[in-house]
TrEMBL record:
It comes from Helianthus annuus (Common sunflower). The keyword Transport does not apply. GO terms for biological process: proteasome assembly. Pfam families: PAC4. GO terms for cellular component: proteasome complex. This is Proteasome assembly chaperone 4.
Length: 153
């Protein structure tokens, strides 16, 4: 088959061949990406959440009063002892608020977490409330370990 730069369409038989070839690659569809957004109020302070659940990873954003991105953390279990490692990707060098939340989410879910967090570092009650709401939503979404897995870890 010669390439014709002036041709504007692909012949239907060649398009069907391409679709057939792609279907025969054996690539399995993973579970779809799930995006969840919700808000809450704690002591008259609006708190906003966005959770993007991938098949084997969670991204979460927590915003307090504004839609500012905040600090970005990545947390995951590391081998050989399944200890959770957390690193600050953006900001957060002196603020452990988001790092602690990210670490505990990995312990609860068993999957890597990327967390953007914009909550004040001098408010432990707000931090506890935010983490509780996030964990509650992850439980509803089915992203927590069973009790037997938690005991093993």
């Amino acid at each position: 088959m010669d390439f014709d730069p002036h041709a504007s369409t692909i012949e239907s038989s060649s398009a069907d061949d391409i679709v057939h070839d792609v279907q025969n690659l054996g690539i399995k569809e993973e579970a779809s990406t799930n995006i969840t957004c919700f808000s809450d109020v704690f002591n008259d302070i609006p708190i906003h959440f966005q959770i993007i659940c991938f098949p084997k990873q969670i991204y979460a954003w927590i915003g307090c009063q504004t839609a500012r991105f905040g600090c970005l953390y990545a947390a995951a279990s590391t081998r050989p002892n399944n200890i959770v490692s957390v690193t600050s990707l953006l900001g957060g060098t002196s603020d452990n608020t988001g790092a602690g939340i990210a670490r505990r989410i990995v312990l609860k879910t068993g999957v890597p977490v990327t967390l953007a967090c914009n909550i004040p570092k001098d408010s432990p009650m707000l931090e506890a409330h935010v983490e509780k709401k996030l964990i509650q939503k992850l439980i509803i979404l089915g992203y927590t370990k069973s009790k037997s897995q938690a005991v093993i870890s």
